[in-house]
């Protein structure tokens, strides 16, 4: 089954990153996510695709090569996010590494003082 395969693949991604992860049936965004410094870098979507946060140039490359698809939420394209189907499982770990590095090295926005 598609969902079972995706869950097993994402569990391998989580284990690769040293994360203890268990599948959640919750529909809340981020319920099946891996985080670094509180920010999501990889997640399993409701449709059981791998969701990754990557730099704009890498997103463009993956979309152009048809290895990934744009991520849409509520009919809106979410810039900087791509999804991969389980058929692209050979890319899941390597691209999750890229997402981890990208999110880790992103500069933190400065918060305004009250």
Descriptive report:
This protein has 114 residues and is an alpha+beta fold. The chain has one domain. Helices cover 36% and strands 25% of the residues. The protein is built from 3 helices and 5 strands. The protein has a 5-stranded antiparallel beta sheet, with helices on one face. The longest helix is centred in the last third of the chain and has 17 residues.
Quickly count the helices.
3
* Share of β-strand residues: 15-25%
The N- and C-terminal alpha carbons lie at a distance of 51 Å
Compute the number of structural domains: 1
Summarize model confidence as the mean pLDDT: 89
The beta-strand count equals 5
**What structural class is derived from the secondary structure elements?**
alpha+beta
Q: How do the strands line up in the largest sheet?
A: 1-2-3-5-4
| SSE run | HEEEHEEH
Calculate Rg over CA atoms: 14 Å
Helix content: 25-40%
> Are there runs of 5+ residues with pLDDT below 50, and where?
none
Name the overall outline: globular
Question: Major sheet: size, sense and barrel closure?
Answer: 5 strands, antiparallel
């Amino acid at each position: 089954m598609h969902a079972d395969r995706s869950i097993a693949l994402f569990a391998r991604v989580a284990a690769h990153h040293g994360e203890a992860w268990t599948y959640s049936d919750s529909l809340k965004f981020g319920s099946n996510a891996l985080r670094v410094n509180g920010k999501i870098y990889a997640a399993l979507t409701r449709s059981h695709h791998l969701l990754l946060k990557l730099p704009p140039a890498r997103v463009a490359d993956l979309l152009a090569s048809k290895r990934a698809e744009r991520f849409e939420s509520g009919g809106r394209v979410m810039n900087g996010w791509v999804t991969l189907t389980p058929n692209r499982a050979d890319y899941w770990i390597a691209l999750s590494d890229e997402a981890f590095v990208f999110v880790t090295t992103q500069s933190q926005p400065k918060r305004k003082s009250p």
